[in-house]
Input
Amino acid sequence: MNSDCDRRAYWTGQMDAAFDFMEAVRVYPLEECGEPMASLRDLPDGVEVVFSDTLRNGRHPRVYAVRAGLHELFLGAAREMNARGWILKVEDGYRSPEMQRAQSHNPQYFDLILQKTIWELNGKIPSSDLMLRRVSALIATRCRIGTHVSGSAIDISVLDRNTGETLDRGGGYVEISERTPFASPFVSESQRACRDAIDAIMRRHGWIAYPYEFWHYSSGDAYAEILARSARAARYGAVNFDGSQITPIPDEESDALLEPLEFYNVNITAALERLGMT
Output
């Protein structure tokens, strides 16, 4: 199972499953608990964590915060990684609706997803509807399905403390390929073992991996409750966070598309021009 045909079939199946998962998230029961945010940078002595210093989409400072009830879970995972000789690197935390919307506008991400979708279609240009589905799976096109907006998700890498090198999980942050899903068969045995070892630590501390991106973990939101088959309502939903207080986003607003379908028509054309594919 290593031909282009196999890889395309796997990618298509995973992305279709990811979109279906997002549709399930949209209707999953949510009982917002109103819990405030806590800074991930608030670290006790002896806990070593590093944070990405790049701007989100080239213009937004990253907001390293999660709901207060998840802070100790975060510290627990960081401590266990330190004990193993690793350092947890947080790539991203909370995103405002504006930051989430900007993801789709970022040529870095849009162009990567478009190129991969064209590859998936054997060179054909995708419809705007298919592009919406793929962006939904990999970026999130509604606040309701973007758990960073809930303050309940973190994107992570892990470093070797001795060398400072990023552990090899079969791709970096962000990888857009058939290696992106957590259970991808297109990674080596050592890369699989690395993913599994990191995941075991995160799970022991209450974090659940999003199956379609190996770097994304969440807790207490619809993703986590669905994947754990808990039958519990999600307690964290989309919120606005002003740096001190949260304001829950009403259901209808949080479930609205951040960009209309026409956005994808226009941006497919623009991306093709950028890529020299017109």
Q: What stands out?
A: The chain has one domain: 4-274. The CA atoms of residues 36 and 245 lie 7 Å apart. Residues 4-274 form a domain with the Muramoyl-pentapeptide Carboxypeptidase; domain 2 fold (CATH 3.30.1380.10). The two ends are 33 Å apart (CA to CA).
